[in-house]
Amino acid sequence: MVLDAGEIVLRPFENRDRSSLLAILGRADLMNLALRERRFGVREAEIFIRDNFQVTERLHYGTVTLRSTGEAIGFSGFRACAYLNEDDVEFGWVLAREHHGRGFASALGEQLIIHALEVWRLPRVLAACNPLNAASEHILRDKLHMRFERSVEPRKGFRRKVYSAVPGWCR
Known about the structure:
Number of strands: 8
CATH architecture: 3-Layer(aba) Sandwich
Helix content: 25-40%
Number of helices: 5
Strand order of the largest sheet: 1-2-3-4-5-6-8-7
Shape: globular
CATH superfamily: Gcn5-related N-acetyltransferase (GNAT)
Structural class: alpha+beta
Distance between the termini: 22 Å
Order of helices and strands: EEHHHEEEHEHEE
Number of domains: 1
Radius of gyration: 15 Å
Strand content: 25-35%
Largest sheet: 8 strands, mixed
CATH class: Alpha Beta
């Protein structure tokens, strides 16, 4: 899967992306509000890449790159999600801090929603964020116009605000 989001592109992982993604996964300032809510050690990051960037499955992550240079600046994609007690699909992204505030997450999120609803024809697609991640919540609610579903705590101390988009979603 390749998604064109203007100045950025989501494409399958390539080995040349490894060092950039290891650096991102190892940054506490990024990872404290994403995924496991802590930075990854190198070995753990290598395992995460191995297990989650497989292009043989529909639900996987890919590398977010700058169109102009091909530089890997983050990762994004889809994964299975049971936050609302159903078999849903969730999308998400993690971008290097120096690329925040440039509209990349909004552009990418829009393309992910379109892909899930129009290409895969899912009945809905979810996105979830840590309640302390005001920037991501702003994108989901105000930029992508997703509907707030509810707050969940799938395991003790691990909280998420869950948003959805359904067919007919308005860009």
